[in-house]
Structure formats: structure tokens, C-alpha cells
Hints:
Blueprint: E1 3-7, E2 18-20, H1 23-33, E3 39-45, E4 49-56, E5 59-66, E6 74-77, E7 87-92, E8 95-100, E9 105-106, H2 107-120, E10 128-131
Antiparallel strand pairs: 1-2, 1-3, 3-4, 4-5, 5-6, 5-9, 6-10, 7-8
Helix pairs in contact: 1-2
Amino acid sequence: MKVIFFDRQEASNPHNNEVVDGTTELLDILESLRDRNPFFCELVGDDGFNLLLGIGGDRSCAQYSAGDGNTPYLMARLERNTEADGYEEFLINDTITPVPNRYSIPFETAKEVATHFLKTGQRSPLVLWEEI
């Protein structure tokens, strides 16, 4: 499968609109973004589904949805985060978007979720998915 990468915070990102079809290429892009202030990027699949990734150092989040904007919107979460309090703020188009910590996943997990999406177009079984 192929995905198109979009940085939803920095329009000047040279990877915007880049077609990504290899795991190494995808991981290199994600690693290059890790040290920025928390923000969202998106992988738009050629199968009609999208994966929105919040990246912020060691903490990330992931949302899986249909490309046409229809529900459901599914957030990745770890079983142990069910009762997590607080939130993490991610930027999208210069707007701060709070994401509850119950949806926080490690950056390494987010990379695995992203590579699974690249390979299959589907949600990763590595995490639980909760409708929001």
C-alpha cells in the first residue's frame, strides 16, 4: 500500500504530499519529526482510510478514520491508560488540540501503528481502539 504524508502543523515540511511506500522511508520521516513541539501529521492511505499521528518526543497518539470524514473516529490506547488523568496538547494548523492522556502511547508504539497502517491500511492489533 502507499500513503501520502502530510504535516498538519508545518506547511513548509519538505515531506508534505510525499508518497511513502516503504517502512524504512516512513520511519525515517517520523524519527526526523520527533524533537519538535507536539503536533499532528497524517498518513492518507490509498484505500480510503487515514491515520492521524500526534508526535511529541516520547509521547504520541493515533487516530484511525475513514478518509471521507465519516464516523467512526477511533483512538489508539493502551489498556493500562484507562484511568489516566490530564491531557497532552498537540498543534494542528497553529491550533492547540488537547488529547486526553488515556490516548497517550509511546512514540515507539506509534511507529509500529504507522508501519502496520502502511503495510495493510488497517488498524494495528498492537493497541486497543476506542471510538470517540
